[in-house]
């Protein structure tokens, strides 16, 4: 089972995923949540608490990345867990993704929402 939480900060949408992205229901839930952020300029997908990601989840990340590019949205993976990185590296998809570092995320937060300006 996967839990998703969305936080919109100005033109940034942070989508936090927790659990396992291995069944089609969790894969389609992820797609639904990300596609609903079409208003954002930047979508940061926090994968730090994803325990496992199956082939369907990895394929969905590729789809979402392409969708975001077509919409002019920056799509960034933030702090992907070891299992996600291994899955992406295993099929060479990791080369296609923009993986945001912690300092980069702090900078994005500072520019997207003034409440975080002092933190950066």
State the end-to-end distance.
Answer: 34 Å
For the biggest sheet, the summary is: 5 strands, mixed
Rg (C-alpha, Å) = 14 Å
Helical/strand content category: alpha/beta
Query: What is the CATH architecture term?
Result: 2-Layer Sandwich
- The structural domain count equals 1
Order of helices and strands: EEHEHEHEH
CATH class division? Alpha Beta
Helix content: 40-55%
Describe this structure in words.
By secondary structure, this protein is an alpha/beta fold. It has one domain: Transcription Regulator spoIIAA (2-Layer Sandwich), CATH 3.30.750.24. The chain has helices at residues 24-35, 55-71, 82-90, 102-112; strands spanning 2-9, 12-21, 42-53, 74-78, 98-100. Helices cover 41% and strands 32% of the residues. Strand 2, helix 1 (24-35) and strand 3 form a beta-alpha-beta unit. The chain has four helices and five strands; from the N terminus they run ββαβαβαβα.
């Amino acid at each position: 089972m996967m839990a998703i939480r969305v936080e919109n900060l100005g033109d940034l949408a942070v989508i936090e995923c927790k659990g396992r992205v291995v069944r089609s229901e969790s894969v389609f839930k992820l797609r639904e949540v990300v596609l609903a952020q079409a208003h954002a300029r930047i979508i940061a997908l926090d994968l730090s608490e994803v325990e496992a990601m199956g082939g369907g989840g990895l394929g969905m990340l590729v789809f979402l990345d392409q969708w975001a590019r077509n919409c002019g949205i920056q799509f960034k993976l933030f702090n992907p867990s070891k299992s996600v990185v291994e899955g992406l590296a295993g099929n060479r998809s990791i080369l296609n993704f923009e993986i945001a570092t912690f300092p980069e995320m702090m900078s994005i937060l500072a520019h997207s929402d003034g409440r975080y300006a002092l933190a950066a």
